[in-house]
Amino acid sequence: MSSNYTIRTQSPEETASFAEKLASFLHAGDVLTLEGDLGAGKTTFTKGLAKGLGVKRTVNSPTFTIVKEYEGRLPLYHLDVYRLEDSDEDIGFDEYFHGDGVSVVEWAHFIAPYLPTRRLDIRLSYNGETERKIELSPLGEDFERVCEELMK
Ligand code: ADP
Ligand code: MG
Fold first, then answer.
1. Shortest-distance Cα residue to atom 12 of ligand 1
2. Which of 45, 56, 88, 133 gives 20 to 30 Å between its CA and that of 106?
């Protein structure tokens, strides 16, 4: 069983800066999944992560495309696989998951068979108007270490 790491943030800025700090521990080929209801903070989190990866462009939810790529110190591949709910379509996930950047996957459970076993699962939940709970579930030793460093 992997251990869980939980933090609570009190503002969008705090969520973004937590994600920005997480970015500093990431490498090419790292995969993060992001789950959480509408308004939980997935986009806020991803914007912070992008900043930490050195992305200059503005990150928005990839509502009409499945994947958006952003150049940075490390590229960011932002995937929203919601529209793949009822298909087993492989749109070439490995190119992203084993690519030169960091992948962030929203609605990742829709593509469970394609997810790498080594990844960081992140769940955001609403906890009142300005509080959010962020739960990290590292899968694999590397992400266990990342979580330990991040919580220091
Ligand atoms: P999602 O992409 O999951 O739908 P967004 O990031 O687009 O969520 O929206 C989160 C909303 O919640 C924003 O309006 C943001 O200002 C607000 N918010 C309030 N408190 C927080 C917090 N602690 N962390 C993140 N977002 C927060
Ligand atoms: Mg969003």
1. 39
2. 56
Give residue-wise pLDDT tens across range 29-63. Answer: 999 999 999 999 999 999 999 999 999 999 987 66
For residue 141, give the nearest of 113, 108, 118 by alpha carbon: 118
pLDDT-based confidence at 1, cuts 50/70/90? Answer: very low
Q: Is 65 in the pocket of ligand 1 (CB under 6 A)?
A: no
- d(CA 152, CA 39) in angstroms, rounded, equals 28
Q: Is the CB of 68 under 6 A from ligand 1?
A: no
Among residues 52, 62, 36, the alpha carbon closest in space to that of 127 is found at 36
130 CB within 6 A, ligand 1 = yes
| Domain definitions of the chain by residue range | 5-151
The CATH classification number of 5-151 equals: 3.40.50.300
d(CA 13, CA 25): 19
Q: What pLDDT shows up at residue 135?
A: 97
In angstroms, rounded to a whole number, what is the distance separating the alpha carbons of residues 31 and 24? 14
DSSP state of 58: P
